[in-house]
Design brief:
This protein is α/β, with parallel strands linked by helices. Helix content is 33%, strand content 26%. It folds into two domains: 2-177, Aminopeptidase (3-Layer(aba) Sandwich); 184-273, AF0625-like (Rossmann fold, 3-Layer(aba) Sandwich), CATH 3.40.50.
């Protein structure tokens, strides 16, 4: 069973939660401080804590129900206030200013991310929102089961937008119920926080992503850490943005790939080779 986690501390999260409850019939159960809603196809857990600080929530909730994946329904915040849907995996390199631990990575859910993006792609037209992947950032990083964040941004008006919540909730529902799991999984390196080239690739090819690292991660990225990201992403390739990756980082990528015995592709090569 896949488990969607929502937070009472997050208006976008609760907006998505309210829409999810309309998509199937649920049984409500309360255990200690957690409220659960179970349907035939998935579950929802409601927390009274901020999602980015919910380290080891998989271990905590496993006392009450069985699940094999977590989907965090969340807000996205940015100063520009643009209307955007984002998705990403969580984790940190040297700093853990927004939850999680330093040099710690949550296990990704790349198949669900891909199926969510494809569903969202069909629904986004006319909403006034754009879509973007984000690179790996913030907590919780201490999550052992596959997980990812699915977000509405970037300000309070968007977080409370019922149409936006409907689009995200319905795309989450479609991803949960999708039976397609044969996507090609990559870890990526390079580019900016909103990962424009990776966003193009996930929309236009058969590739999906586990962890993604931006150029602002370069000072802290090591071949060991990249190899760890490959391992927990179950990745079969590393894709790098050739426009931003330095020779030093490319050497690091090749070292990690050699250790992991996987392919290395430029973003332009990946787009051509795996075009859908």
């Amino acid at each position: 069973m896949k488990l969607v986690i929502c937070s009472t501390k997050d208006p976008a999260s609760m907006n998505i939660f309210e829409v999810l409850l309309t998509l199937e019939n649920f049984d409500r159960k309360t255990f200690d401080n957690y409220t659960f809603h179970f349907s035939e196809s998935f579950g929802i857990a409601v927390l009274d804590e901020k999602l980015i600080y919910a380290d080891q929530i998989d271990k905590r909730l496993s006392k009450y129900c069985k699940f094999d994946e977590i989907l965090f329904a969340s807000r996205h915040s940015s100063k520009d206030g643009r209307k955007i849907f984002t998705t990403h995996v969580t984790g940190n390199l040297s700093n853990a200013d927004f939850g999680g631990k330093p040099f710690s990575l949550a296990k990704p859910a790349p198949m669900t991310i891909k199926n969510y993006v494809l569903s969202l792609k069909e629904k986004i037209e006319g909403t006034g929102y754009e879509f973007s992947l984000e690179v790996t950032h913030h907590g919780p990083s201490e999550i052992k089961v596959p997980s990812a964040f699915f977000e509405i941004g970037s300000d309070e008006s968007a977080w409370k937008d019922k149409l936006a919540a409907e689009v995200v909730a319905e795309s989450i529902f479609d991803a949960i119920n999708s039976k397609k799991y044969d996507w090609n999984v990559a870890v990526s390196v390079g580019g900016t926080h909103y990962a424009p080239r990776q966003t193009e690739i996930i929309l236009e090819t058969n590739i999906t992503f586990g962890h993604n690292f931006a150029k602002y991660h370069f000072d802290d990225l090591t071949s060991d850490f990249l190899a760890k990201a490959v391992e927990i992403s179950d990745a079969e390739m590393i894709v790098y943005d050739e426009k931003s990756v330095t020779s030093k980082i490319r050497s690091l990528i090749l070292e990690a790939a050699d250790r992991s015995k996987i392919e290395v592709l430029k973003a332009s090569e990946a787009k051509k080779k795996f075009k859908s």
